[in-house]
């Protein structure tokens, strides 16, 4: 049997970061998930003045807290990326801080409902102002003194429950909640361990939670984050379906009963799973091993009250149901429509396309199991769990399935495709090394592979090319190269070197090369590193802001930049944004976009990006004037002048919403690169998109 460990629990990782930040003293966290979701939480905490070291797999993380109300006002918008947990829990944390902040997220997160958190937090005294659509991100929050809260949650939701409890803690007030079901209780356990007085009492089918007192100072944490049961569910399913030989042993998996609702359902389906509970719970959370063998599964009925305990496992359960004998009926799962994607819609559409008989209900799915071979493309809709569920189905003998956005898995399970390769590889064959963190410098290719497509998006300042390119990359499963971040990383290096800025123009390219600025491929992005340190908040510091355009004009920077951009291009499957990528850096790019928008619209977007009001006191006019001046400089400067390539496709985003802009570009890209945009990239280091 293959022995596997899975990455740390995502929910516990977020909470550990938040509570360590709010505690007094130094917390120690081992086994934290290094996926993109907790990285979003960590980087927001840094922006709020907490020194959070980079999240490194298998290393102990030490964080010195700033106290329950010690967060500092941020200098820019707080980007929660794809993470609903970050957004909602952070709103609760910020509610009790006397400061103003603006939270935003990626396209998927900006569609997800926030009122379930902001309504009760408003009743406690926090103020919210949506900057785009009502009840959606981006949202400005003004926190401060809070009142106690008595509240009935509209849905069983750990994120909502946790946000309100955290507001109780940061506001120093009591909170009484009634939840119509039993969602995960990690926050309650961790708050109790940190010194809060908290009770949870079942009342019929409801959960009554009371935070009666929060101490003025939370105790620091010392915890081991167990493996994420929700991640373990994927290799577990692979093994049940016979895709992992004799089966798998999953070690050190969190077995909190509010998380393992999938197990009794699988037992009804005839699954052969043994659970070996560890002798002592780690960090207050029970953990143990799961021994999973191939099984002849039969269909079952999943009842509404079972949903909160397996909320994140519905995608993989649907895949298991597609391979079980008979019918599986899942109801009471309407909450899945507002997850990272509309998961019921995504499951129904993809399973149907592959040839499975599915009925989509308003609140669930009816799935007829089949043992026919399943083939076709899967649209993961940027959703990590949809990508992984179909990744498992595609790994089974006889199926040929391509998942369009393999890199989506990095949100919760970095290394998922490598795990799949290893678990489903006959013993003795070499496994594929982890591709998620590789230096772009010399590193010899693990295996011969052709360069993937390079897509470039050039355009003037404020056209939104960087956020657009990031989203286009995410949707394609390609990597995003943000050239602006390279200039900023070099500026950081120069500032830290102590050489006075007036000496910089004399620097040569080899002087610049002496600075240890590196780009490290990480998931769907490149991380900027200075030596061994990841640069994140520093890239946007006021000092860097003040010097970056001077650095961009240095003659030596041209060659330095060109080199690094081309190195990134050699990794392939790239969406880059800049000013001369299509003309100078990648003249042979597979698709070139020139993104424009009229200057007033660009000014408005710039202001929003900086978290400022776009229509206050002539701000747009002033910003537009700045942009016009910038356009003139950009078009004429020696280094990376702004130019439209003759073969670039111009997209005018003035009257397009962000989504329409991204969709238009994706349309052009797909028309140019065809199937290669569907199959994703080589981010998976040769993990197969189809299997025989
Ligand atoms: C989570 C709670 C769940 C879950 C999500 C993580 C958490 O969401 O789906 O992946 O960490 O609190 P809801 O609170 O919306 O049910």
Structural class comes to alpha/beta
Fourth CATH level, the homologous superfamily of the largest domain? P-loop containing nucleotide triphosphate hydrolases
Please identify, by name, the CATH architecture of the largest domain: 3-Layer(aba) Sandwich
Treating each run of at least 4 consecutive H or I residues as one helix, how many helices? Answer: 21
The largest β sheet comes out as: 5 strands, parallel
Q: And the CATH topology of the largest domain?
A: Rossmann fold
Which cofactor or ligand species appear? shikimate-3-phosphate
Give the overall average pLDDT. 89
Query: Runs with pLDDT <50, length 5+?
Result: 426-450, 678-692
The separation of the N and C termini measures: 22 Å
Architecture overview:
This protein has 21 helices and 30 strands. The chain folds into three domains: 216 residues, UDP-n-acetylglucosamine1-carboxyvinyl-transferase, Chain, CATH 3.65.10; 202 residues, Alpha-beta prism (UDP-n-acetylglucosamine1-carboxyvinyl-transferase, Chain), CATH 3.65.10.10; 223 residues, Rossmann fold. The C terminus is likely disordered. The protein has 692 residues and is an alpha/beta fold. 35% of the residues lie in helices and 20% in strands. Helix 2 runs parallel beside helix 3 and helix 9 packs parallel to helix 10. The structure holds shikimate-3-phosphate. Shikimate-3-phosphate binds next to helix 1 and helix 5.
């Amino acid at each position: 049997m293959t022995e596997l460990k899975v990455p740390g629990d995502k929910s516990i990782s977020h909470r550990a970061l938040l509570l360590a930040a709010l505690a007094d003293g130094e917390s120690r966290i081992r086994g934290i998930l290094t996926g993109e979701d907790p990285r979003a939480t960590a980087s927001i905490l840094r922006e709020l003045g907490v020194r959070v070291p980079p999240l490194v797999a298998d290393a102990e993380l030490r964080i010195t807290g700033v106290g329950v109300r010690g967060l500092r006002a941020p200098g820019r918008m707080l980007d929660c990326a794809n993470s609903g947990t970050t957004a909602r829990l952070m709103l609760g944390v910020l509610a009790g801080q006397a400061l103003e902040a603006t939270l935003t997220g990626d396209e998927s997160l900006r569609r997800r409902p926030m009122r379930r958190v902001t309504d009760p937090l408003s009743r406690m005294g926090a103020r919210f102002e949506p900057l785009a659509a009502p009840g959606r991100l981006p949202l400005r929050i003004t926190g401060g003194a809070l009142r106690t809260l008595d509240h009935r949650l509209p849905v069983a939701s750990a994120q909502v429950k946790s946000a309100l409890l955290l507001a109780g803690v940061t506001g120093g007030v009591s909170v009484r909640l009634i939840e119509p079901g039993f969602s995960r209780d990690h926050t309650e356990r961790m708050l109790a361990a940190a010194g809060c007085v908290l009770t949870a009492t079942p009342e019929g089918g409801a959960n009554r939670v009371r935070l009666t007192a929060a101490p003025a100072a939370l105790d620091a944490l010392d915890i081991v984050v167990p493996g994420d049961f929700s991640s373990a569910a994927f290799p577990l399913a692979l093994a049940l379906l016979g895709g992992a030989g004799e089966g798998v042993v999953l070690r050190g998996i969190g077995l909190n009963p509010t998380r393992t609702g999938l197990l009794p359902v699988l037992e009804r389906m005839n699954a052969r799973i043994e659970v070996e509970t560890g002798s002592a719970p780690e960090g207050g959370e029970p953990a143990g091993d799961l021994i999973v063998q191939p099984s002849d599964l039969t269909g079952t009925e999943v009842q509404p009250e079972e949903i909160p305990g397996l909320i994140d496992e519905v995608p993989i359960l649907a895949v298991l149901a597609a391979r079980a004998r008979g019918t599986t009926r899942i109801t009471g799962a309407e909450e899945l429509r507002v997850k990272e994607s509309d998961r019921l819609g995504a499951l129904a559409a993809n399973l149907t396309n592959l040839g499975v008989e599915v009925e989509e209900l308003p609140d669930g799915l009816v799935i007829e199991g089949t043992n026919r071979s399943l083939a076709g493309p899967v649209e993961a809709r940027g959703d990590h769990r949809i990508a992984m569920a179909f990744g498992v189905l595609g790994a089974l003998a006889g199926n040929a399935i391509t998942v369009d956005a393999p890199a989506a898995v990095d949100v919760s399970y970095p290394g998922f495709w490598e795990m799949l390769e290893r678990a489903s590889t006959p013993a003795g064959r070499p496994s594929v090394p982890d591709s998620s963190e590789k230096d772009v410098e010399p590193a010899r290719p693990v295996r011969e592979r052709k360069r993937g497509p390079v897509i470039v998006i050039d355009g003037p300042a404020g056209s939104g090319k960087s956020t657009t390119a990031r989203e286009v990359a995410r949707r394609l499963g390609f990597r995003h190269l943000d050239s602006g971040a390279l200039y900023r990383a070099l500026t950081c290096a120069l500032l830290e070197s102590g050489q006075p800025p007036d000496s910089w123009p004399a620097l040569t390219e080899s002087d610049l090369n002496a600075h240890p600025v590196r780009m490290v491929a990480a998931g769907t992005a490149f991380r900027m590193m200075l030596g061994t340190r990841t640069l994140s908040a520093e890239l946007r510091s006021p000092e860097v802001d003040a010097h970056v355009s001077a650095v961009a004009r240095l003659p030596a920077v041209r060659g330095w930049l060109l080199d690094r951009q081309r190195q990134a291009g050699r990794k392939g499957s790239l969406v880059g944004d800049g000013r001369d990528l299509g003309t100078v850096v990648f003249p042979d790019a597979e698709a070139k976009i020139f993104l424009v928008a009229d200057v007033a619209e660009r000014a408005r977007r710039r202001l929003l990006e900086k978290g400022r009001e776009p229509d206050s006191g002539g701000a747009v006019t002033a910003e537009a004037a700045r942009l016009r001046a910038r356009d003139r400089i950009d078009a004429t400067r020696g280094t990376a002048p702004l130019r439209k390539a003759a073969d670039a496709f111009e997209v005018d985003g003035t009257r397009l919403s962000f989504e329409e802009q991204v969709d238009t570009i994706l349309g052009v890209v797909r028309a140019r690169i065809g199937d290669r945009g569907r199959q994703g990239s080589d981010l998976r280091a040769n993990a197969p998109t189809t299997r025989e």
